[in-house]
Design brief:
The complex is a heterodimer of chains A (113) and B (114). With 113 residues, chain A is mainly beta. Chain A has strands spanning 5-7, 10-13, 19-24, 31-37, 44-50, 53-57, 64-68, 74-78, 87-94, 103-104, 108-112. In chain B, strands 2, 5, 6, 10, 11 and 12 form a 6-stranded mixed sheet that branches. In chain B, strands 3-9-8-7 form a 4-stranded antiparallel sheet, with no helix packed on it. In chain B, a hairpin with a 6-residue loop joins β10 and β11 (102-104). Chain B is globular. The chains are: A mainly beta (113), B mainly beta (114). Chain A binds chain B through residues 4, 33, 41-43, 45, 48, 55-56, 88, 90, 92, 97-99, 101-107, 109, and chain B through 32, 34, 36, 41-46, 49, 51, 90, 92, 94, 96, 99-107.
Chain lengths: 113, 114
């Protein structure tokens, strides 16, 4: 069965650089969530989209932005990277917003040096 | 405000022994309940979910959980664990209104010992 695809799997950037993370949800899933997970931490909700509109916003820094495109894929843009941005970034999709479990991708490991 | 509490950050247990991972939640609106498992360097995978109906739900890999509304708990259990069950387990709730936001607990690291 198709799963959530995230690219790239690994990304190394220097401080103050920018990064773009991509997420391709499971076909027919209309909701996308972005999470940030630091080492040994639980996933922290960043932002979500439903039907290409921003649905909810969590602890996403102002330096980050995201959008969901017409084909439902989503991109997380990160600028002025800081060392503290080093983490695993997960994308998850669901069939609809309500009572539908999240399906997670394998994540993008971002390392900022 | 809504919250999910997983009191045990780590649970060591011997192989073939039973295990219970505890989850309590607080919410002013009704919620849906989930357990996810995360293996190293992988995304979270759904173990089981409670949406409505029978309060005892069965999931993959022999896990089950019971929803207790009066105690606002959703504890995860397995009667006999295997080495391969060693992983991080996250309890999560989804609010049944508004933005249908998901809230995760801080996770419980299950370590199965030989």
């Amino acid at each position: 069965a198709a799963g959530v695809i995230q690219s790239p799997r690994h990304l190394i950037k220097e401080k103050r650089e920018t990064a773009t993370l991509k997420c391709y949800p499971i076909p027919r899933h209309d909701t996308v969530y972005w999470y940030q997970q630091g080492p040994g931490q639980d996933p922290q909700f960043l932002i979500s989209f439903y039907e290409k509109m921003q649905s909810d916003k969590g602890s996403i820094p102002d330096r980050f932005s995201a959008q969901q495109f017409s084909d439902y894929h989503s991109e997380l843009n990160m600028s002025s990277l800081e060392l503290g941005d080093s983490a695993l970034y997960f994308c998850a999709s669901s069939l609809n917003r309500e009572n539908s479990p999240l399906h997670f991708g394998n994540g993008t490991r971002l390392t900022v040096t | 405000a809504q919250s999910v509490t997983q009191l045990d950050s780590q649970v060591p247990v011997f192989e073939e022994a039973p295990v219970e991972l505890r989850c309590n939640y607080s919410s002013s609106v009704s919620v849906y309940l989930f357990w996810y498992v995360q293996y190293p360097n992988q995304g979270l995978q759904l173990l089981l979910k409670y949406l409505s109906g029978s309060t005892l739900v069965k999931g993959i890999n022999g896990f089950e959980a019971e929803f207790n509304k009066s105690q606002t708990s959703f504890h995860l259990r397995k009667p006999s664990v295997h080495i391969s069950d060693t992983a991080e387990y996250f309890c999560a709730v989804q609010l049944n209104s508004g933005t249908y936001k998901y809230i995760f607990g801080t996770g419980t690291r299950l370590k199965v010992l030989a």
